[in-house]
Amino acid sequence: MISVALKGLLGRKLRALLTAISIILGVAMISGTFVLTDTIKAAFGTVFNQVYKNTDAVITGKSAIGTSANGNTITPPSLPESLLQKVRGLPGVALAEGGIADEAKLVGRNNKVLTSAGGAPSLAFSVNPKGDQRFNPLVLTTGRWPQARHEIAIDSKTANTKHFKIGDTIGVLTRGPVEKFRVVGTVRFGGLSSLGGATIAIFDLPTAQQIFNKVGKLDSIGLSSKQNVTPEQLVAEVKPLLPATAQVRTGAQEAKQQAKDTNGFLKFLEYFLLAFGFIALFVGSFVIANTLGITIAQRMRELATLRTLGATRRQVYWSVVLEAFVIGVIASVIGLFLGLALAKLLNALFVSFGIDLPQVGTVFKERTVVVALLVGVIVTLIAAIRPALRATRVEPIAAVREGAILRRSRLSRFGPYIAIVVILAAVGLMLVGLFVGGLSTTTRLLSLGVGALAVFIGVAMLAPTLVPPIARVLGWPAAQWGGAPGRLARGNSIRNPSRTASTASALMIGVTLVTLVAVIAAGLKATFSDSVNKLFTADYALTSQNGFTPTSIASEQALNRVSGVDVVSGVRAGEAEAFGGKVSITAVEPNVSKVIDLKWTEGSPATPGQLGQDGAFVAKAFAKDNTLHVGSPINLTTPTGAVLRMKLRGIFDPPKGGSPFGDVTISTTRFDREYANPQDLFSFVKVKGGVTDANTARLKQALARFPDAKIQTKSQFIKLEEGGITFLLKLLYVLLSLSILISLFGIVNTLVLTVFERTREIGMLRAVGMTRRQVRNMIRHESIITALLGAALGIPVGVVLALMVGKAIDYPAFTIPWFTLIVFVVAAVIAGLIAAIFPARRAGRLNVLEALQYE
User: Fold this and answer.
1) CA-CA distances (angstroms) from residue 531 to 537, 658, 711, 838?
2) Lowest mean pLDDT: which of 635-649, 703-717, 798-812, 825-839?
3) pLDDT tens digits, residue range 806-828?
4) Counting C-beta atoms within 10 Å of the first and last residue's C-beta, which end of the chain has fewer, N or C?
5) Residue 91, burial from CB neighbour count under 10 angstroms (0-12, 13-18, 19+)
6) H/E element holding 633?
7) Residues with Cβ < 8 Å from 693, sequence gap 6 or more?
8) Which helix (H) or strand (E) holds 540?
9) How confident is the model at residue 400 (pLDDT cuts 50, 70, 90)?
10) Burial classification of residue 325, based on how many CB atoms lie within 10 Å of its CB (0-12 exposed, 13-18 middle, 19 or more buried)
């Protein structure tokens, strides 16, 4: 039976190839994800190992509140420069050097910031040009290190791509207006081929301290130990000298810790991409099951003959499983190595979206090989179980019976009821994950994931019952205006509802997911716009160019000096600890009520002007969660360890879309005193005469020395802030397109195999006068009807899932994007036309006489 199975597989090369494509693409996604994320992890590991390779110990600031509420590292406080002299006096210290590490945006000749759209970091470091460069991970490629106030060294990539050379002048943006610096050197990061989209600016230490407002401070101190003093001994010697806001680690420990801090994002990226790989394989399993099911139905006589010659049901079963196993192994191996190319494409995709991450040589781990091959083969085998069981139901008598068909199983009549039970159980499981409290994150995600998969399976099981009535409706235009080919196409779609349903179900999954994403995104955009329209009483908003990085307070002050400006009110942002957890802090100026209209439940529009040094206000939900009322004490612990003892002065009720304020809002006067280097998240502006071209021009002119600042009207502000949602939406659409592509191969598969199956039928149609063009049109109509069935099943399921998810995350509004859904339907028609190209041409080329003789 093994040789029979293998010979049969070789005799159906086209069918095997079409079956394998879905597994190849799914495995390639998994392999490519591992390769890409492993390569990026290796790059970050190289960065941190390079930074600390000559460092025995390093002293850094320590945030008193750890990481932020979203898991990001909070910028720790700087160290007093006097600490450097103290550690230099320790007996175990051979060398100690202090440095500054911050962010400085380079500005090109066109007065625009030289950073990628994805917000890649603009790194800035200090250097001691005359000192020992042991702790310096950077290598000079041309020129020298900066030594004076207006000298700078920049990274070689920026110098080459933006055409800066030694002696040129480049703009630098730090805490105030852009400053001009003379390029005296270019550098590269040793041991790394690329830092992605990051730029690097190097200053001498006194200059760095001045431009970053850190005079008398350091961000880190690198230490080298004397002979016979281990790094651990050096750490123990340094610890007693440190203030509460500082910490010391060995160089290896610091490199490991910083790599760990980045691994959180990389783990998220890995799981994010793997999810799309598994979605692709899940869709592929429908394609495989459908293809094997069709080929088994077409091989009735072959299988029956084997039974006649003595093959048992068990042998027939394992022959089909063996075919699937061989296809799975070959497809998985191809997909594994295709993943290397896909990793490059994924990286190019992220770069095109502005996410340019560091790179080293490609990392291809054994884990990638094992997981990709196992998953590909296992998914293929699982998909083959049902077709293999169907093959065992072929009776030996079918070998001599004309037009024999597989008898239905005893449970088939209960199929619709079982499907409904599966759907209800899946919805119940999802509701548990969404709403039941006390569950761990892992349990919650697992119940959601399994529930979603079960929903797809249940709908696919119910689809054969739904296909005939839906296909009659969707096929009505083809039957009405497509002539005989259209009527035949509609009849062919209904003739075998199980096959049509299985093919449409693969497309349904992709359509469901893009609908889910589109509905949630539409709701977020609608509620955000509604919130801004209710709150925003200013004429203009001042933000950074990308809308999410802060801007300097100096840019706000520049607008205050513009003629005709009535109000400029900035909003700062930071992190603190209160009520046993992390809270977001915002700070406002006394005049904020003139530009932001809040609905006060306790307090009044005068409240922001009465905050002073110890006042605060919060949103209604935060007050309820923490049992607060006006007069309640609020103790905030800042990253420096300082405790701010505040009193609640007001409570406001924000719109459903939220507000620009954090959990706790205090005055900018107190915030600026407690938080180093404060910056504005937003600033809101009111001008005499409102929004006019003249006012806009004056405001832009005042910001000419702040290239990263952007003045906008209300509508422009809404559009910019919604850009993050649009960005994510586009990325998700691109990644989900892989599963849709696989489902299109499923349609191609089904149509090609039905052309084989209906060879005699097509020959008869040609014999009675149907032209090649009409045959091709018939296949196209079938393909379109199948694609529309996928959309008809997927869009409602996607809308329902979006509603459930929205309820779970306290979704502010449920909005159905009708235009987007119409676009999806049109896209389904186009997809159907594309999927029909090869099968239609194949059907049109059939020779009439050979087709009539085909058996």
Assistant:
1) 12, 6, 20, 50
2) 798-812
3) 776 666 667 888 888 898 889 88
4) C
5) exposed
6) strand 633-637
7) none
8) strand 540-544
9) very low
10) middle
Residue 408 CA, chain-centre distance (Å), reads: 44
The DSSP 8-state label assigned to residue 212 in this structure reads T
Query: Percent of the chain beyond pLDDT 70?
Result: 88
Distance from C-alpha of 851 to C-alpha of 35, rounded to nearest angstrom: 48
Instruction: Enter the tokens of residue 418.
Output: 């079982």
User: Would you say 836 and 782 are in contact if contact means Cβ atoms under 8 Å apart?
Assistant: yes
683 closest CA partner among 656, 702, 697, 670: 702
CA-wise closest residue to 42 among 274, 363, 348, 266? 363
Q: How far is CA 62 from CA 59, 67, 264, 675, in A?
A: 9, 10, 19, 14
Instruction: Choose among 449, 330, 432: nearest CA to 380.
Output: 330
Task: Read off the DSSP letter of residue 358.
Answer: -
Instruction: Return the number of other C-beta atoms located less than 10 Å from residue 809's C-beta.
Output: 9
Burial of 752 (0-12, 13-18, 19+ CB in 10 A): buried
Rounded alpha-carbon distances, angstroms, from residue 628 to 618, 622, 650: 9, 8, 10
Say if residues 194 and 40 touch (Cβ distance below 8 Å).
no
d(C-alpha 793, C-alpha 460), whole Å? 9
Q: Could you tell me which of 95, 68, 96, 98 has the C-alpha nearest to residue 81?
A: 98
Q: What is the CA radius of gyration of the chain?
A: 33
The helix (run of H) or strand (run of E) holding residue 108 is none
Domains in the chain: boundaries? 1-74+248-409, 75-247, 466-533+715-855, 550-707
- How far from the centroid of its chain's Cα atoms is residue 41's Cα? 17
What lies within 8 Å, CB to CB, of 106 at 6+ separation is 113, 114, 115, 122, 154, 158, 170, 171, 172, 173, 199, 201
Give dist(CA 78, CA 220) in Å, integer.
8
**How far, in Å, CA of 685 to CA of 665, rounded?**
20
What 3-state class would DSSP assign to 381? helix
What's the per-residue H, E or C state across 741-803? HHHHHHHHHHHHHHHHHCHHHHHHHHHCCCCHHHHHHHHHHHHHHHHHHHHHHHHHHHHHHHH
pTM for this predicted structure: 0.79
Half-sphere exposure of 585 (CA within 13 A, CB side): 30
Token duo for residue 648: 């609640």
Cα separation, 515 vs 781, whole angstroms: 24
| Token pair 């592509």 in the structure block, residue | 741
Both tokens assigned to 604? 């009044």
Asked whether the beta carbons of 35 and 339 are under 8 A apart, the reply is yes
325-383 confidence digits (pLDDT tens): 888 898 899 999 998 888 888 887 777 766 767 666 788 888 899 998 998 898 888 88
Q: Considering all CA atoms of the chain, what is the largest pairwise distance in Å, rounded to the nearest integer?
A: 103
**CB-count burial class (<10 Å; 0-12, 13-18, 19+) for 690:** exposed
- Output the six-digit token pair for 204: 């001498």
Q: What token pair was written down for 288?
A: 């495989």
125 and 363 Cβ atoms separated by less than 8 Å: no
- The β-bridge relationship of strands 151-155 and 179-189 is parallel
Once rounded to an integer, what is the mean pLDDT over residues 400-429? Answer: 70
Q: Is 694 helix (H, G, I), strand (E, B) or coil?
A: helix
Maximum mean pLDDT: which of 165-174, 253-262, 338-347, 473-482: 165-174
- Please report, as a single letter, which amino acid is at residue 563: S
